[in-house]
Amino acid sequence: MAELGFNDHHQNEVINYMRFARSKRVLRLKTIDSCFEDLKESRLVEETFTADEVSDMLEGLQAVVRGEVEMELINTSHTNVLLLRQLFSQAEKYYLKLQTDVSELENRELLEQVAEFEKTEVTTTNKKVNVFPCTVEVTSS
C-alpha cells in the first residue's frame, strides 16, 4: 500500500481529489479525441490531398487541440486555487497560517510517490470514499 504520510481521513480526502482530477482528465482526453474524429469525418472525404490542404487541416487541428489543452490547464489551475481556498479558510477559522513550498511541486521523487499512490490506492481500491467537501470537526471537553 503506497503511503503519502497522511492519517486515514486525509488520505481519503486525497483519494477523493485524485478521483475527481482523473475524471476531469478523462473527459478532456475524450474531447481531444473527438477533435481528431471531427477532422476525420468532416475533412477527410477525398482520397488524395495536396500538401497545402494537409497543412491547413493540421493547423486547424493544432488550434483546436491547443485551445482545449489551454482551457484544461487554466481550469486545473483555478480548481487548485479553489482547493487551497477551502483549506486556508478552514485553517483561518482556528487562527492557523498554512505555508506552501512551491518548489516541492516539481520534486520528481515526490511526484513519483504521488503517481505510485494513485496507481495503487485510487485506481485499484473499491473503498467507499466520501465525495463531499471536507470539514473540520473540533470538540472541546
Automatic annotation (TrEMBL):
Pfam families cross-referenced by the UniProt entry: Leu_zip (PF15294)
InterPro entries per UniProt: LZTFL1 (IPR026157)
Gene Ontology BP annotations: negative regulation of protein localization to cilium
Keyword Cytoplasm assigned: yes
Superkingdom of this protein's organism: Eukaryota
Keywords (A to Z) from UniProt: Coiled coil, Cytoplasm
Compartments reported by the entry: Cytoplasm
GO CC annotations on file: cytoplasm
PANTHER family hit by this protein: LEUCINE ZIPPER TRANSCRIPTION FACTOR LIKE, LEUCINE ZIPPER TRANSCRIPTION FACTOR-LIKE PROTEIN 1
Record function comment: Regulates ciliary localization of the BBSome complex. Together with the BBSome complex, controls SMO ciliary trafficking and contributes to the sonic hedgehog (SHH) pathway regulation. May play a role in neurite outgrowth. May have tumor suppressor function.
Subunit structure: Self-associates. Interacts with BBS9; the interaction mediates the association of LZTL1 with the BBsome complex and regulates BBSome ciliary trafficking.
Family, similarity comment: Belongs to the LZTFL1 family.
Identification of the protein by name: Leucine zipper transcription factor-like protein 1
Source species of the chain: Clupea harengus
Gene name per UniProt: LOC122130929
